[in-house]
Structure formats: structure tokens, C-alpha cells
Design goal:
heterodimer, A: alpha/beta, seven-stranded mixed sheet, B: alpha/beta, Aconitase, domain 3, 2 domains, 14 helices, 31% helix, globular, binds iron/sulfur cluster
Chain lengths: 165, 419
Amino acid sequence: MKIIEGRVWKFGDNIDTDVIIPARYLNTSDPEELAKHCMEDIDSGFSKKVRKGDLIVAGDNFGCGSSREHAPIAIKAAGIAGIIARSFARIFFRNAINIGLPIIECPEAVDKIESDTLIRIDLSSGLITDIRNGKSYRATPFPPFMQELIAAGGLMNYVMLQQRL
Amino acid sequence: MGRTITEKILAAHAGLAEVHPGELIKAKVDIALGNDVTAPLAIDEFEKAGAQKVFDPNKIVLIPDHFTPNKDIKSAQLCLKMRRFAKAQGLRHYYEVGRMGIEHAFLPEQGLVLPGDLIIGADSHTCTYGALGAFATGIGSTDLAAAMITGEVWLKVPESIKFIFWGKLRPWVSGKDLILYTIGKIGVDGALYQAMEFVGEVMDQLDMDSRFTMANMAIEAGAKNGIIAPDNITLAYVKSRAQRNFKLYQSDKEASYKTVYEFDAADIEPQVAFPSLPANTMPISQVPNISIDQVIIGSCTNGRLSDLRVAAQVLQGHKVHPDVRLIIIPATQDIYRQALIAGYIEIFLDAQAVISTPTCGPCLGGHMGVLAEGERAVATTNRNFVGRMGDSRSEVYLTNPAVAAASAIMGRIANPEEI
Ligand code: SF4
């Protein structure tokens, strides 16, 4: 699996799916359109400020609320390459894995890493490194079945392999 | 060792003798649900994968309810995609405007979901059906696409938390207050990844409508599912509706729980959840003077007949405060009809409320009552996140239907006892 490196956007606890992508924009599923409004209710202009490859670091229960897959899609299409949080809401967690948006739970990294820091994540080992000061943090690796899903490139690819579609 | 009702249902659908918390399983689904927001994405994935046929046209339910009757051209396009897919696949359970209802009120009402089922839905409030003694959980659109092809879903077996409610309910207290109180105690991630099982003498007396409300909001504590073991009240509800066999499961006495909470109903007043989290609760007696602009009575949480009944009881002979708009949304066509026959609709009209066709509408800030900057609403819905009902500077207070109706009359958040 790959290594991602990017600048950090930090958010607090309980960032919900209505904030990630407000329901008023759910009348489309076009990723580019959704990306424009990503996080706009808590950080207006977020999608303009984000550079491709940036990362989100957030507190507890990231992605709580609705089942809308538009939330991880909007984040991914906005250019965010991965998310580290203290914990994720479970449907958001599934959705992110299913669409191939890397997400990692690591409370220690969340406590120590500041906004704007440049960090590196090694997805296969779960090692997170703060490039500025060299400090590193280790996240719990995924269980084998989920690694299989991720290796296949998301749930649909996995299903296609299994069903020989 | 004993097993919980959740573990038993999951084991049965995974074809295993037993399952344990933390285990990843593949389980067969009895019903897979999608709506006009989530199904179109799933259909795209289904087609991209090159799939030709759904695994079983009788086990997929598609309901346009979020932005319907179509609020704009884009929404109409999404519904069109769903309708065409339903036709092409010969889906038995596609329900068009005029024959539908808000999904989580409609499926149980029509007997489409039954005790012992494993139900997944591309909507977070799919957990509502746990009130029937089923395992029901929200998933995403890609999960729905995969399930439409394979009839299966991957799940992690959750740990269970038991909530025991003792005593007798106080006046004007309903399932909504029990669940808001619970979420207020444990927080919006208090049951993250876990099963919430509701038991106790209060639950034994509670009607199905209140049970649905409680299971509906399990997701608001981060839970995977909420569940209430089936009893005579459940059976009376499903008997006339079921068109296929179902199975009743109960937790074993020796089943193990991660945590057990015990609450005394004597401590539970009608609750108000302040912006912008459902856990931000306060008992009605401590709520200060908060003026409001709009009241919504409806949604998959509290748009059922008994919700309309209690609203009618409070509103009868009163008028909505001149500064307030009261919007009432029966959750299904059938509830609408029954409210009409029972005379509730006339009471609402006399009170100067507006009554809408079944729709999610304002619950998610879609249409039919979106809030402007700085406006405040009392709503019987389930979420009061920032911007949930409109502008990001508007506010939503969650309550039961009695408090909502009283507030509409008073023009501020009010206790029904004041009326
Ligand atoms: S009524 Fe609200 S919470 Fe329920 S399904 Fe519709 S949008 Fe979701």
C-alpha cells in the first residue's frame, strides 16, 4: 500500500455529515459539484483552500449523522488524500473504506498534530510521521478482511472479483 | 455462554451457530433499502460493476421520500433514475409519491420488515426497525450496490449495551424523551459501533410508535443498531401486516453486555435537545424563554399516528402563535388518511397549521420549510446539527410532539402543561 504525504487541516469532535456536505446539495451526486460545498458551513471556502493531497486530522466521532456516501465522496473530490481521527462514526467508516478513501484511527496523533503541519502516513504499517519534528505515531492496523477490501480497491472491486463480473 | 438478541439474529443470517462481538461476518439480508438520495449512487455503482440482475427483486425496497414530490429538476432526475431501475429490474417494492411514506414509517406499516429480519438500508435511520426485534442498520450506497448484487453484507458483530427503564412514565413523556434522555446521558458517540438494547418495565408497556422512535435515534448515539425484543405488543402490530414468516428472538438471561445502564422513568421529564447536537438535552422545566419561528411535527422519528394524536390533543381549540409557522407532516399516506378520519387534520387546520404530503422535506433542510439565517425551529425530528434545516446560523431544538405543539401555540419553547 502507498504512502501519503500532505498538509493538515484540523477539525474538532463530532464533525457531522451535514457539515461535511449539507443536505441542500444532495440533489446531485457529481463529485466535483459536491466538493465545492465540502465543509462550507464550518469553514467557508474550505474547498478553495485545500490543495490536492492535503489531509484532515479530527477528533472523536468524525462523520457522524447520515449514511450519505456524498460525505466521503465530497472530501475525496475536494482533494483530501486521507483522514486521521480519534474515532469515526461507523457508517462513515464503512463508506470511506468502500470508496477507497484512506482513514486511520490514532488518538495520539490527533492530540499532537497541529493544523498546517506536513505529515506522512504509511498506510501499510499505520505509521504517521510529523515531518517537521520527526515525531511518529502508530495507528492500529486494519483487520485482515478490511485489508483485503482495501487491497481490492474498495467494495465494488471486491464484489466484482468474487462474482467474476 | 448466553447470547444477545442482536448476536442471535446475526448468527442466523451468517449461517453460523453463534457469533461473537468483534467478529467480521458476511450475512444474508432479508431487505435492502434505498431512497432518492442514496439509491441513485448505488445504481451507478451497480451499473459500473457490469451487474445485470439484482439478487432478488422481492427483497429490495426503493422509496423516493427525501426531496419528493420533486423539489427541483435535479431531484426529479434522481427519482427518474430510481424509477427506471425499479422498472427494469422488476422490483416489487418501489413506492411512488401518492402511494408511499417516509421510508422508516412506511416499511413497518406495510409489513415489509418483520421480527428476526436482517435489514440494511442506505439511510442511517434504518435502525428504526430494531423496534420490531429485527437487526437493522444503516449502510452506504456502495454497500447497497454490493447487496443488490450479492444479497449479502459484511458486518462487524457489535458489542451490546443494555438500557433498563424502570418505573412509570410521567405525563407527556414518550419514547422520544426516553431516547433523548439516554443520548443526553451517554453522548453522541456513547454507543459507537455498538448495539443498544432497550428493556425494562417501561419498555414492556410502550406502544410500537414510541418504540420506533427510540430505535430510530440509536444512530444519534453512534450505535450500529437499536433493538427491542418482540412481545405481545410487537405481535399485535405485525400480525395483520406480515405476508411472510418471521422469527422471534430474545436475549438469553446470561447474555453478556459491555455496559448496563438503569434509568428511573420518574427522573425523566419531556426533553429538549438544544443546538447543535441531539445529546445537548435539558428537561423542559429548566428551559429558559426561547422564542421560535417555526415548528415541524413529522419525520421518521415522530410523524406516526400517535404523534399526530398527541399534537391534536394539545392544539385542539387553540391557534398557532402569530409569529410561528406550524408545519405538520404525516409520515405515510395511511397515517394521513387515519388522521383525517380521526379528525386531527381538522384540528390542525383550525389551529392554522399547514399540512403536507408525506416527505422528509424540512427534516434535512431539503424543502417545505427551510430556515433562514437566525431563525429558530422546534422539531420532532432527530438531528439538530449546524445547518440541518437550512442556513448554518439557524437553530433546531428537538422535542416530542406534545412539546412541539405547545411551543407552536406559545411562540416559545413551552411545556404542554401550560396549555
Ligand atoms: S425524515 Fe429525516 S431523518 Fe428520517 S429518513 Fe427522512 S431525512 Fe432522514
